[in-house]
Amino acid sequence: MQNSNFDDVRNTAEETVFGKNSNQYSKKENGITMVLCIIAAICIWFYVMSIDSPTATEIFSSVSVTVVNDRDLSVEMPLAPISGTGNVIEVKLKGRKTLLNDLRESDIEAYVDVSEVMTTGKGVYTVMVEAPEGTVIEDYYPKEITVYMDKRSSVTVPVQAHLEQYSLVSGYTVNLSSPTLSLESIQVSGPESELAKIDHARLTVSFPGTITRSFSSAGLLTLVDENGDEINTKYLTMSETEATARYHVYTTKTIDLAVAYKYGYFAENGTEVSIQPKSVKVKGTVEVLELLESHTVATIDETMIAEDGDHAYPLKLPEGVEFADANQSDTVSIKIRFTKAKLNKVRITTSNAEIINVPEGKKVEVLDEAMTVNVRGTTGALMFMTAKDFSLIVDAAHASTNGDQYITASVAVKDGNSADLYVVGDYSLQIRVSDAEE
């Protein structure tokens, strides 16, 4: 009884290990083997089909025809087609099925050669078809197409830019009518009848986002007629196909007007100088106005201003800047008032005048015995000045003709002109030129 139970337990264990479980392992292995066999069969099938697939035929119904014209343009009357290109034909090809399946209409070359045509007008010409490698043409239709020929010529057409899709900052404007173009015109060649339709070459550009300053943009050129409609260019050839336009963005700004001085005397001696108007509103490109805060309307030579007064100066704006108001006056008034520096006169004898640059072989003598000079300075400087404080120089470089004549004389403070004391005005002396005694 005990042995029987033990045998049952042993048999159950053996069945578990070598019976049911072993059957499960066999099923898994069989499934994996079957999948691998299917994959191998598919690969073999693709390999066989690519190496030795069955022969088949395929119809390509929209093969484009190109009109070829390789004729020498130096002949007496070169011609150009104005129709034909874009026609489609139906082509029947024979070859391996796998190869045919990969082909597209664009892989088939169909053309009409008109390079030997010598007359204008309509003609019927044979279509030539070249099959892709590995295929044979069984048939195609139609085998002829009609082509119109015209005289070939060339014209020069202007380039015009067109800006679209843009936005501007408030207060800014863009010059749409006359941007700076990289090309003013282009050459277009082709049939005369097509050339006659062209009005200009249009450069269309756009600016994404908001325009805040001048910019350049490139784009493709298209030929358009007088109505702005695009012309089909498949029979026309342009010398250039793209261009660049630079658009200038303008704004306005109020700038201060200022006065400069040649020597700086007015600024140092307290002379009052005022300008009217004090500022002006101008227009210019954003880039120019960014750098312009004020504008100097005049540089005053203090030695030429003797008395208080109002002086008119032309208001010339910097290059690239114009008045925002068309009615703006182009002159300014500069008022000068001497509050501290005074004007006195001093009598200078000419006996100590220095004559320089006397021409060779000439003698120069000063006929005037003395001259009166205007001098401006502070009260203290004027009080102690004497004629000995001034130098007198006569430059005779141009006194080459004998006789009496007037010549410019240079008068200056010996210690150097300054805001405390400087000579005002231009002066001249009468001299006599004669031949030097040997």
Quick summary:
The protein has 438 residues and is an alpha+beta fold. It has six helices and 32 strands.
Topology overview:
Blueprint: H1 2-52, E1 55-68, E2 79-81, E3 88-96, H2 97-102, E4 109-113, E5 121-126, E6 128-130, E7 135-141, E8 144-164, E9 167-168, E10 173-174, E11 180-181, E12 185-191, H3 192-195, E13 200-206, E14 210-211, E15 215-224, E16 237-238, E17 242-247, E18 249-261, H4 265-269, E19 272-276, E20 279-285, H5 286-290, E21 294-300, E22 309-314, E23 321-323, E24 331-337, E25 342-349, E26 354-356, E27 362-366, E28 370-377, H6 379-384, E29 390-395, E30 403-413, E31 421-424, E32 427-435
Parallel strand pairs: 1-4, 8-13, 9-14, 18-21, 26-29
Antiparallel strand pairs: 1-3, 2-8, 3-7, 4-6, 5-8, 8-12, 10-18, 11-17, 12-16, 13-15, 15-17, 18-20, 19-24, 20-23, 22-24, 25-28, 27-32, 28-31, 29-30, 30-32
